[in-house]
Amino acid sequence: MKKTILITGGAGFIGSHVVRLFVQKYPDYKIVNLDTLTYAGNLENLKDIENETNYTFVKADITNGEEMYQLFEKYNFDSVIHLAAESHVDRSIADPNAFIQTNVMGTANLLNAARKNWDGKYDGKLFYHVSTDEVYGSLGSTGFFLETTPYDPQSPYSASKAASDHLVRAYGNTYHLPFVITNCSNNYGPNQFPEKLIPLFINNIKTNKSLPVYGDGKYTRDWLYVVDHARAIDMVYHKGKQGETYNIGGFNEWQNIELIKLLCIKMDEMLGREAGESEKLITYIKDRPGHDRRYAIDANKIKNELGWEPSVTFEEGLTKTIDWYLTNDLWLKHVTSGDYQKYYSNQYIHN
Ligand code: NAD
Ligand code: DAU
């Protein structure tokens, strides 16, 4: 079936994998990638598909409500897969306003534009909102986040994502706008900006820089290979039930320090370094303010109802990821020049 799908944030980490999957798998769909290209947006992520006939890139800012109305009028989108966001917790601690503007107001602008353009004729329409497990807050040493877990966001980032989730559900309830929401755990893989734990540490090991571990390093995250998140989004988009929420996770919990030690061992092997060399770079530093202790997703709903499961083991995913960063030297060089150096020194050197 022919469809025109708006994917927002498609030049970012997860968005670029979603765009690639939809462009390649569904030649009948017209995919419009809307992205304002912040520091995290990078068209180099999509070089391999940029000339496909079913792909269009539009540079636009979701905080501009008028522009969103105009784009809906121009393209008559059948559905939206909304990923555009400010996504890094540390940046939200330093500057919450950008998160409130993009994640809350930007989502409201897209909802308003969809509502106006669709005008109550909802057949074949869908607003798919991509969210995070961080909206549920922090777990103790046991238990899991379920779709029914009450929201309890703890950082400006997670509060802004929670607000956007609430808006989507409110538009569903009030205006019957057809929607679906997914809340996913920590992603890793190729094309992730080196501010997040795994790519930051790969780059620092590669360049022999210290590895800044926050607090006692015993914080726990549930890691998922990014291509498996894109596969889940494909499945929920096509088979998910409207008005529902699905949690997505890797069934793969790691304490930060254990993950970092594994990364060091693997990188010593892959770089031909002496065993134990990279671990010497580990440095414990001041903790992140309000740091959530543990996230763990129960992903059994999407598994049982839609048949989704991760396809890549952590061992395979980590090897592919390290290999990608070691091979794509130029990509890393481009994203770590200029503003990145300023960010790095504010976050890790003068902090
Ligand atoms: P990212 O920071 O790599 O990419 C975000 C993209 O959004 C960038 O291309 C950026 O240019 C674009 N963008 C930002 N502000 C914009 C604006 N005002 N207008 C248009 N485009 C704008 O983020 P990511 O890690 O790929 O995350 C994508 C989505 O998935 C986010 O909504 C995030 O909350 C969610 N999520 C991320 C993770 C994760 O582990 N990274 C896990 C669960 C959910
Ligand atoms: O859970 C999903 C979320 O995962 C997404 O919604 C966010 O967009 C994404 O950024 C991620 O949030 P985290 O805060 O969990 O990811 P981050 O990579 O920043 O940190 C992972 C863990 O590593 C966390 O406990 C903090 C720690 N850490 C991180 C950095 C950058 C360090 O110890 N040192 C660091 O330098």
Folded structure, characterized:
This protein is an alpha/beta fold. The chain has twelve helices and twelve strands. It folds into two domains: 4-188 and 223-248, NAD(P)-binding Rossmann-like Domain (Rossmann fold, 3-Layer(aba) Sandwich), CATH 3.40.50; 197-220 and 253-293 and 312-338, Alpha-Beta Complex (UDP-galactose 4-epimerase, domain 1). The strands form three sheets. Strands 3-2-1-4-5-6-10 form a seven-stranded parallel β-sheet, with helices on both faces. Strands 7-9-11 form a three-stranded mixed β-sheet. Strand 1 (3-8), helix 1 (13-25) and strand 2 (29-35) form a beta-alpha-beta unit. It is globular, with a radius of gyration of 20 Å. The mean pLDDT is 98. The site of 2'deoxy-thymidine-5'-diphospho-alpha-D-glucose has 19 residues, from helix 6 and strand 8. Nicotinamide-adenine-dinucleotide is lined by residues 8-9, 11-15, 35-38, 40-41, 61-63, 83-87, 102, 106, 130, 132, 161, 184, 186-187, 193.
Question: Architecture of the largest domain, according to CATH?
Answer: 3-Layer(aba) Sandwich
CATH class of the largest domain: Alpha Beta
Content-based structural category: alpha/beta
Main sheet attributes: strand count, strand direction, barrel closure: 7 strands, parallel
Adjacency order of strands in the biggest sheet: 3-2-1-4-5-6-10
Number of contiguous helices: 12
Give the end-to-end Cα distance, rounded to a whole number of Å.
53 Å
Specify the overall morphology. globular
Bound molecules: nicotinamide-adenine-dinucleotide, 2'deoxy-thymidine-5'-diphospho-alpha-D-glucose
CATH fold descriptor of the largest domain = Rossmann fold
Could you say how many structural domains there are in total? 2
Cα radius of gyration in angstroms:
20 Å
Count all strands and give the number: 12
User: Could you spell the SSE succession in H and E letters?
Assistant: EHEEHEHHEHEEHEEHEEHEHHHH
| Sequence stretches where pLDDT stays below 50 over 5 or more residues | none
Give the name of the CATH superfamily of the largest domain.
Answer: NAD(P)-binding Rossmann-like Domain
Mean pLDDT: 98
